[in-house]
Each structure stands twice: as C-alpha cells, then as structure tokens.
Protein: Ferritin-like domain-containing protein
Organism: Parafrankia soli
Amino acid sequence: MNGAIDATDVTDATEATGAPVAADPALAVPGTADPALVDLLGLLAYGELTAFERMATDARMSPTLADKIALGRMAAAEFAHFEAIERELTRLGVDLEQAMGPFVPALTAFHNLTAPSDWLESLVKAYVGDNIAADFYREIAGRLAPQARALVLSVLADTGHAAFAVERVRAAIATNPVVAGRLALWARRLVGEALTQAQRVAVDRDALTGLLAGVGDLQEIAGIFNRIMAAHGRRMSALGLSA
C-alpha cells in the first residue's frame, strides 16, 4: 500500500458508500480505542512505512535526476503519513509496533511476491496494485466516526504519485507500444495478489473485518467491490492499459 491515490477516487469512494457513521468515536478518550480501529491504523501505518521504503528504492532506479528528486519528495510525504498515524496511536495509548505487528506477514508476502523487475513495473505497482487495498480502506473509513475517518483519508491522500506514474507510463508506451501488454499482465497479477492477501488479513483479524459487518445485504457488499473494481478500471485506462 501507499499514498499514491487519485484524489477523485477518495471523494467518489467515501461519498458512494453511504455507510452509517459510528456514534461514539473511539478516538475521543485515550486508552479506549476500538480494537478494529487499532487494527486499521496499524495496517495503514505499516503500509505507509513500506510505501516510504519502496519509493526511496524507486528513486534509486529513476532514469533522470528530476525523477529521483520527485520520488524522494513523495517518499518523505509517505513517511509523514506514517508519523501522523504513529501520533494518533500514541495518543490512544497503543504501542505502534504492536499495532503493526499482525500485518507484517501478509504485507511482506505481498511485496515479496510482487517485486518489480524494472522502473515501469514499480510505477504500475504503486499506482495500481497498492490502490486496490487503499480503495478497500476508504470503504472501511466510511464506517468510522468522523475524526477517525478524517485521519484515515488524510493518510491515503495522493502525494503526487498518481500523475507522476501516469505521465511516465504513458510516455513509455508511446515510445515503445510493446511494453503495454507486459504492464497490463503485471497489473492483473498485482490485483490478484492484493486480493489474496486481503483475504488473509480478513481471516486473521475479525475485529478489522467486523467494521464491514454493518453492511446490510449481499447487494451492498457487491456494490463495494463494484466501486473498487471501477476505480481500478479508471486507473488502468489512465495508464493506457487494458484492464
């Protein structure tokens, strides 16, 4: 996961959920946080930390000095998101490492299975792969109390990577159209692995998935996944790739 989120997707997803908001925000009293909220913040914290690490690595692979500088700034923004979550967990009396710990295996497995082989694959991974998970987190955020929801959406906000990735990938395709097929296959693999790891988290963390327990029926659940896949389709189109 990372902060490379299309800002329009944030608005669309949160407005579209129409989900009820918790009446009693767990953030109100330090030390009384809902376990589900702690799980979500821990998951996001580790996601932002790994996003920082991967963008810093991507900066080293950058073909130009301008790209290196741009990705370095985005990596710094991702770390700032991580620190914002750390501050909130600390305010709640929750140990940061303990909150992140349960999600290290699943996210590590995802990143190990989807290690990009080159610069373009790294851009597609950050823009397409990570955002599948981020869309799901935004759906969950729609069921949080306002203060918690605002924090989650703020750390999922675009750091500038969306436009950066689209511009570079489209330019590469224009120069060499053959790469489009390879990148489209790569994106499909990313989505499959992301969904697999999301299921793993759902099985292991009842409190976290319980945030969606209030969904009324199968039609509403289907609506959630339809919105996620629609956002994915828009990103693929923006890149000039077939979904």
